[in-house]
Design brief:
Blueprint (H helix, E strand, L loop, with lengths): L11 E4 L3 E3 L2 E3 L14 E5 L8 E6 L4 E7 L2 E6 L4 E6 L4 E5 L4 E5 L6 E6 L8 E2 L2 H8 L1
Antiparallel strand pairs: 1-9, 2-3, 4-11, 5-10, 5-12, 6-9, 6-11, 7-8, 7-10
The chain binds thymidine-5'-diphosphate.
Protein backbone atom coordinates (compact mmCIF):
# COMPACT_ATOMS: atom_id res chain seq x y z
CA UNK A 1 0.00 0.00 0.00
CA UNK A 2 1.31 3.48 -0.83
CA UNK A 3 1.98 5.38 2.39
CA UNK A 4 0.03 8.30 0.92
CA UNK A 5 -3.21 6.37 1.51
CA UNK A 6 -2.33 4.94 4.92
CA UNK A 7 -4.81 5.65 7.70
CA UNK A 8 -4.50 5.91 11.48
CA UNK A 9 -6.89 2.98 11.75
CA UNK A 10 -4.07 0.81 10.36
CA UNK A 11 -1.79 1.82 13.25
CA UNK A 12 -2.34 -0.30 16.30
CA UNK A 13 -1.42 -1.03 19.87
CA UNK A 14 0.33 -4.39 20.15
CA UNK A 15 0.28 -6.20 23.48
CA UNK A 16 3.57 -8.09 23.58
CA UNK A 17 3.96 -11.29 25.53
CA UNK A 18 5.67 -11.06 28.88
CA UNK A 19 7.82 -13.86 30.25
CA UNK A 20 7.17 -13.49 33.94
CA UNK A 21 9.64 -14.85 36.45
CA UNK A 22 9.93 -14.23 40.17
CA UNK A 23 12.98 -12.13 39.43
CA UNK A 24 11.36 -9.95 36.80
CA UNK A 25 9.91 -9.88 33.31
CA UNK A 26 11.27 -10.36 29.80
CA UNK A 27 9.64 -9.17 26.60
CA UNK A 28 11.02 -10.31 23.27
CA UNK A 29 10.74 -8.89 19.74
CA UNK A 30 11.58 -11.25 16.90
CA UNK A 31 11.49 -10.29 13.23
CA UNK A 32 8.30 -11.51 11.54
CA UNK A 33 7.16 -13.31 14.68
CA UNK A 34 5.67 -10.50 16.72
CA UNK A 35 6.92 -7.58 14.63
CA UNK A 36 5.80 -7.50 10.99
CA UNK A 37 9.05 -6.18 9.51
CA UNK A 38 12.80 -6.76 9.72
CA UNK A 39 14.28 -4.54 12.42
CA UNK A 40 17.15 -2.68 10.74
CA UNK A 41 17.69 -0.03 13.40
CA UNK A 42 16.97 0.55 17.08
CA UNK A 43 17.22 3.97 18.69
CA UNK A 44 15.96 5.51 21.89
CA UNK A 45 15.07 8.92 23.19
CA UNK A 46 16.05 9.69 26.77
CA UNK A 47 16.97 12.64 29.02
CA UNK A 48 14.08 14.54 27.47
CA UNK A 49 13.65 17.87 29.24
CA UNK A 50 10.31 18.44 30.97
CA UNK A 51 7.71 19.93 28.60
CA UNK A 52 9.71 19.05 25.49
CA UNK A 53 8.04 17.58 22.38
CA UNK A 54 9.69 15.37 19.77
CA UNK A 55 8.74 14.11 16.36
CA UNK A 56 7.01 16.66 14.17
CA UNK A 57 7.55 14.73 10.96
CA UNK A 58 6.32 11.84 8.84
CA UNK A 59 8.06 9.12 6.84
CA UNK A 60 7.45 7.98 3.28
CA UNK A 61 8.53 4.37 3.85
CA UNK A 62 9.67 3.81 7.42
CA UNK A 63 7.65 1.54 9.67
CA UNK A 64 8.19 1.60 13.43
CA UNK A 65 7.29 0.09 16.77
CA UNK A 66 7.50 2.59 19.63
CA UNK A 67 7.67 1.35 23.20
CA UNK A 68 7.81 3.19 26.51
CA UNK A 69 10.78 1.16 27.82
CA UNK A 70 10.57 3.27 30.96
CA UNK A 71 8.09 5.90 32.16
CA UNK A 72 5.36 7.26 29.92
CA UNK A 73 4.64 9.61 27.03
CA UNK A 74 1.96 10.32 24.45
CA UNK A 75 2.19 9.78 20.70
CA UNK A 76 -0.23 11.80 18.59
CA UNK A 77 -0.68 10.38 15.11
CA UNK A 78 -2.23 12.30 12.23
CA UNK A 79 -2.93 10.80 8.82
CA UNK A 80 -3.86 14.16 7.28
CA UNK A 81 -7.55 13.63 7.99
CA UNK A 82 -7.77 12.26 11.54
CA UNK A 83 -5.71 12.53 14.71
CA UNK A 84 -5.42 10.02 17.52
CA UNK A 85 -3.54 10.09 20.80
CA UNK A 86 -1.88 6.94 22.14
CA UNK A 87 -0.57 6.96 25.70
CA UNK A 88 2.31 4.56 26.18
CA UNK A 89 3.34 3.57 29.69
CA UNK A 90 4.18 -0.15 29.70
CA UNK A 91 7.33 -1.86 28.34
CA UNK A 92 5.24 -4.74 26.95
CA UNK A 93 3.01 -2.48 24.83
CA UNK A 94 4.11 -1.26 21.40
CA UNK A 95 2.56 1.27 19.07
CA UNK A 96 2.87 0.11 15.46
CA UNK A 97 3.27 3.15 13.21
CA UNK A 98 2.96 2.52 9.49
CA UNK A 99 4.46 4.96 6.97
CA UNK A 100 2.69 8.18 6.04
CA UNK A 101 1.78 9.30 9.57
CA UNK A 102 2.63 12.69 11.02
CA UNK A 103 3.68 12.08 14.63
CA UNK A 104 4.26 14.18 17.72
CA UNK A 105 5.67 12.73 20.94
CA UNK A 106 4.93 14.72 24.08
CA UNK A 107 4.12 14.64 27.78
CA UNK A 108 7.27 12.66 28.63
CA UNK A 109 7.49 11.65 32.27
CA UNK A 110 10.73 12.31 34.07
CA UNK A 111 13.31 9.63 33.22
CA UNK A 112 11.22 8.13 30.43
CA UNK A 113 12.79 6.20 27.58
CA UNK A 114 11.13 5.96 24.15
CA UNK A 115 12.50 2.89 22.40
CA UNK A 116 12.02 2.77 18.63
CA UNK A 117 12.40 -0.29 16.40
CA UNK A 118 12.61 0.74 12.77
CA UNK A 119 12.33 -1.04 9.43
CA UNK A 120 15.21 0.85 7.84
CA UNK A 121 18.49 2.59 8.45
CA UNK A 122 18.44 6.34 9.02
CA UNK A 123 17.69 8.21 5.79
CA UNK A 124 16.93 11.92 5.88
CA UNK A 125 15.33 11.61 2.40
CA UNK A 126 12.60 9.44 3.93
CA UNK A 127 11.45 12.32 6.21
CA UNK A 128 8.68 14.83 5.53
CA UNK A 129 9.50 17.60 7.98
CA UNK A 130 7.17 20.28 6.63
CA UNK A 131 3.54 19.92 7.73
CA UNK A 132 2.08 21.59 4.65
CA UNK A 133 4.19 19.31 2.47
CA UNK A 134 2.80 16.36 4.43
CA UNK A 135 -0.79 17.51 3.87
CA UNK A 136 -0.11 18.00 0.16
CA UNK A 137 1.31 14.47 0.02
CA UNK A 138 -1.81 13.01 1.66
CA UNK A 139 -4.48 14.63 -0.53
P1 LIG B 1 14.59 13.16 14.55
O1 LIG B 1 14.21 11.89 13.89
O2 LIG B 1 14.12 14.43 13.91
O3 LIG B 1 14.16 13.15 16.08
P2 LIG B 1 12.75 13.07 16.83
O4 LIG B 1 11.72 12.54 15.90
O5 LIG B 1 13.03 12.17 17.96
O6 LIG B 1 12.41 14.43 17.33
O7 LIG B 1 16.16 13.19 14.70
C1 LIG B 1 16.82 14.17 15.49
C2 LIG B 1 18.25 14.27 15.02
O8 LIG B 1 18.93 13.02 15.19
C3 LIG B 1 18.36 14.61 13.53
O9 LIG B 1 19.42 15.55 13.40
C4 LIG B 1 18.77 13.34 12.87
C5 LIG B 1 19.46 12.55 13.97
N1 LIG B 1 19.22 11.10 13.85
C6 LIG B 1 20.22 10.27 13.36
O10 LIG B 1 21.34 10.73 13.04
N2 LIG B 1 19.99 8.94 13.26
C7 LIG B 1 18.80 8.40 13.61
O11 LIG B 1 18.61 7.15 13.51
C8 LIG B 1 17.75 9.25 14.10
C9 LIG B 1 16.41 8.70 14.52
C10 LIG B 1 18.02 10.59 14.22
Amino acid sequence: MKSQNNKISDCSIINLDKVHTESGNITVLENHTNIPFDIKRVYYLYDIPSGEARGGHAHYELEQYIIAASGSFDVILNDGFNKKKFSLNRPNVALHIIPGMWRELENFSSGSIAMVFASNEYDENDYIRNYQEFLNFKI
